[in-house]
Amino acid sequence: MDHSNFKPLRDAQVTLSHGGGGRAMRDLIEAVFLPAFGPGSGEDQARLQMGALAEPGARLAFTTDSFVVTPLEFPGGDIGKLAVCGTVNDLVVGGARPLWLSAAFIIEEGCSVDLLRRVVQSMAREAALAGVSIVTGDTKVVGRGAADGLFITTSGVGVIPPTRDLGAVNIRPGDVALVNGVLGDHGATILAARGDLALSSEISSDCQGLGHLMEAVLAAAPRTRAARDATRGGLASALNEMAEAAQIGVVIDETALPLREEVRGICEILGLDPLYLANEGALVLFVPEDQAAAALAAMQARPEGRGAAIIGRAVADHPGQVRMRTPFGGQRIVDMLVGEQLPRIC
Questions:
Q1: Distance between CA atoms of residues 150 and 206, nearest Å
Q2: Which residues pair with 60 in a beta bridge?
Q3: Residues 298 and 217 reside in one and the same domain
Q4: What is the 8-class DSSP label of residue 187?
Q5: Does residue 46 belong to any structural domain of this protein?
Q6: Among 22, 56, 123, 340, which one is least packed by beta carbons within 10 Å?
Q7: CATH number for 121
Q8: Strand partners, 325
Q9: Strands 133-142 and 77-78: what pairing?
């Protein structure tokens, strides 16, 4: 995009005047947001053409989420990339093809304009990769100490094709559970990046959009039952939600779980369970047994799924409960996360 038509911003930090609705606010929008997201219509709403809904049986998918991570930038991503990926992934795990996003920014007085610009540009890059447009938004500025730098709320709109029906209620005993890659990287990265526990790690967040991966899986395994992104609460909470909704049991194999040794080490030092660590580019899905090999191959052929693995299956026993087979031949219950292992993680 040609940035020559946008005025440079002289201020190095965001001030309360940038949220006042006047010239200072307009200057911030023209200097930071419009070069990244485009000029828009100049109206108070986005006006969208949606030919995809004209297909009989197509459905609209709509989701919203807020992001409050600390620190705002971390290895592998930042709050802007997180906001786009998180909202896109909430759409795609339901079978939707994401089309449009909105983005609302709560900016703390004193936030660096350079930081804000990096975050906004990161959002624009990630939206382009996902094939979505950020079509409307809002900015508010609050006083010092009221927002911890920057909060972002994004909403997403997509279309579910008429032939797709993904949902946890569809899972049946015998279905196979798969994940697309290593688990716990995001939670471990944020923990190390905060620097207050003297942890040193080369781990990067797995923050990534999963739309192209899901399209590949659904093409290879069209009878895929359900998918869930394993964000806050990690894999354990996602599996428990799915087991409860379907009223089936789930058994996973501890030795099959893809975990980095660095993540295992951090968890052992701090007494954490990696099954509850947040992920921002990982999903778990259930497919019929006869399509499991095709789904696995489709994931492994994508960069977002190179670490994909079969981790377990749905069973008729202990409905609503998740259990894990240990390397010693026993089983333990994997319950829903109670409370919060790590605050301000996504």
A1: 21
A2: 159
A3: yes
A4: H
A5: no
A6: 56
A7: 3.30.1330.10
A8: 253, 331
A9: unpaired
